[in-house]
Amino acid sequence: MNYSLINEEDSNPAAESVIVAGVFNDGEAVRPGVPEDLKEPLAKLAERHGRWHRKGQFHFVSLNDTDLIIAGLGEEDAWTERAAEETGAALQRFLMREHVTETRLYCSSFALNKSEGHLKSFARGMTLASYEVDTYKTGRKSGQSRPVELQAVYAGDPEKGERVFRSGVIQGTGTNEARRLINTPANYMTPTVLAEEAVRLAGEYEAEIEVFDEERIEAAGMHALMAVAKGSEEPPRFIVLKHRGRPDSDEWDTALVGKGLTYDSGGYSLKTRDGMKTMKMDMGGAAAVLGAMRIIFEEKPKVNVAAIIPSTENLINGKAMKPGDVIQSLGGKTIEVLNTDAEGRLILADGVAYANQIGAKSIIDTATLTGAVVVALGDTATGAVTNNEDLMSLVISAGDRSGERIWAFPNDKAYREKVRKSDVADLNNSPGRQAGSITAGLFIGEFAGDTPWVHLDIAGTGWQEGKTSLCPRGGTGSMARTLAEAVCRMEEK
Ligand code: BES
Ligand code: ZN
Ligand code: ZN
């Protein structure tokens, strides 16, 4: 989305673009900021057609030779950040549907000056709703909608407005990027291609990146990642992408670790045919981390961040791991593989161990890890476990600010003991049905040691079967903006 913010006083209502004004159900029908000569006719219209104020309704009107879009906003009391996000999204879709490409949005009429959060959420909503899934249909180009040119007419300090609006757009852009990576079919989005995407992202911001190939993964001792990768013809990759917000320091303030399973068939513990249909989404954690890194590169927090992505497919061949195998890991613990479909925790074990090796002071991992979290929380909330309540609070409140709900599961010794039960190894990767999301998370926690760590299970929130106002069917980009927001908050601390 192309946008600019201009000061209300400098705005020229005679300009060509379509004017967009919001109308609340109560209070002043026409708020300050709307061009003077439109106020009276607008007020009359609003009075005559009460239904136009209804939330989420948009209408084209021509007044004094000016084209207007009137947006119904509902009750002003209910004008929350979330409502602003929804309305931004609804407006974006209306503009796209009606092929409106140049607009002049009167921010005051939408009460976007109410708080920074309102303006930011509105911009994020517009950006999120602009995302369309690429298709491979012949004769039809994907991403057909023309981008909307938006001029936001803003009362108050337009420089501050520009900064806030921009940060909302960037949150949306990072999320949309994650969606694109997830929605790309697994035959296109292999570990190699995922690594190329990361290299391209690093190139855009002149950021440091390392991509380990198979030999280097092997040499580094990432045996758990290798155990999963053995069953596939596609070579694995281990991606380390860095943001140096404190260039004077060699320390890593935080590591973001993302599960990059570009396809999960389950391996010999094979999934059902239906269970396999959407398993290209099993790199949703990696996508979230890459989306977050774009936001971080744009926002430039003074925080040193290492993004770590172990990436492979989970398939079957003559060399694939088998139920009952015992494998080694980078962290040194041995693992009894009871279920080859519990592969995410294996590759994350090496990812988190690597974060510890480079001395990360905190670790947040994100993964489409368990079917159990879909049962527990659906696609509404991301499930979480931690060894550090402070870090958990930071992540949850970052989620609140980003419009993403996170729910913390308990971390009791009894759950940890389940993971440590094995006759032949230090850990087992599948302790059974009970509390499946907790034990999966705590397995990864075994490799975090004492480092403050939060695990986010996005198996439910990472993909949606139906479309919503903010997102079409498919990958949602869950946690991309929350991870970035959490990192930005680390700077404030
Ligand atoms: N990638 C799946 C989890 C998943 C399930 C993601 C549904 C999205 C939707 C993961 O690798 C997996 O298969 N987990 C198993 C673990 C079990 C074998 C202990 C599961 O949840 O069934
Ligand atoms: Zn699996
Ligand atoms: Zn998986």
Write up this protein.
By secondary structure, the protein is an alpha/beta fold. The chain folds into 2 domains: 2-156, Leucine Aminopeptidase, subunit E, domain 1 (3-Layer(aba) Sandwich), CATH 3.40.220.10; 176-492, Zn peptidases (Aminopeptidase). Helix content is 37%, strand content 20%. The chain contains 15 helices and 20 strands. It has helices at 36-48, 81-97, 116-129, 158-183, 191-205, 214-220, 223-229, 273-276, 284-299, 344-357, 371-377, 389-402, 413-419, 436-445, 480-492, and strands at residues 2-7, 18-23, 58-63, 66-72, 102-106, 149-154, 208-212, 237-244, 254-258, 260-264, 304-314, 326-327, 335-336, 363-367, 382-386, 406-408, 427-428, 453-457, 463-464, 474-475. The strands form 4 sheets. Strands 7, 8, 9, 10, 11, 14, 15, 16 and 18 form a 9-stranded mixed β-sheet that branches. It has a 6-stranded mixed β-sheet with strand order 1-6-5-2-4-3, with helices on both faces. Helix 12 (389-402) links the parallel strand 15 (382-386) and strand 16. The longest helix has 26 residues, at 158-183. The structure holds ligand BES and zinc ion (2 copies).
CATH architecture grouping of the largest domain: 3-Layer(aba) Sandwich
Overall pLDDT level: 93
- Can you tell me the CATH class of the largest domain? Alpha Beta
Radius of gyration: 24 Å
The CATH fourth-level homologous superfamily of the largest domain: Zn peptidases
Q: How does the helix and strand content classify structurally?
A: alpha/beta
At the third CATH level, what is the topology name of the largest domain? Answer: Aminopeptidase
Alpha plus pi helix count: 15
